[in-house]
């Protein structure tokens, strides 16, 4: 239709590379648990198992597409948060096609200042969005570094890269609060 899109394409051999890396990490974790006293409290094997689960989700762009849509649903008509639209008809497990976002990375303070943005207002906008994700939705962007957050308006941000998301149940939300 002539709309600008961003296309995320998975490297052809990345699945096998990660499988080998996880296998190496698991062997090291087992050795560490078996032979290093005091390390059992850190549960290295469990940590590698969790890492493996998370990375498997990140490699499945269908999961990321669902994350984007859930995030968009959570923020509904909130004018302070923009969420890119997913183009399912041009997406697969290894290709994700989303709306192209015109914005400035939150980390580019010089450009934001040059464009006349008020940094304290933007910081508050971003902080409010993060707090809502954790305490209201229980579904949050687990990799919200400045490169994954674009400024798209005077008091509007757009999160990008929804491959890694976190979930909190009501009990954990209350504990955190």
How much of the sequence lies in strands comes to 15-25%
Q: What is the total tally of β strands?
A: 8
Mean pLDDT: 94
- Derived from helix and strand composition plus strand pairing, the structural class reads alpha+beta
Strand order of the largest sheet: 2-7-6-4
Q: What is the first-to-last residue Cα distance?
A: 46 Å
Number of helices: 6
Helix content: 40-55%
Inertia-based shape? globular
Unreliable runs = none
Our Rg estimate from Cα atoms comes to 19 Å
Order of helices and strands: EHHHEEEHHEEEEH
Major sheet: size, sense and barrel closure? Answer: 4 strands, mixed
Provide the descriptors you would attach to this structure in a database record.
177 residues; 4-stranded mixed sheet; two-stranded antiparallel sheet; 8 strands; globular
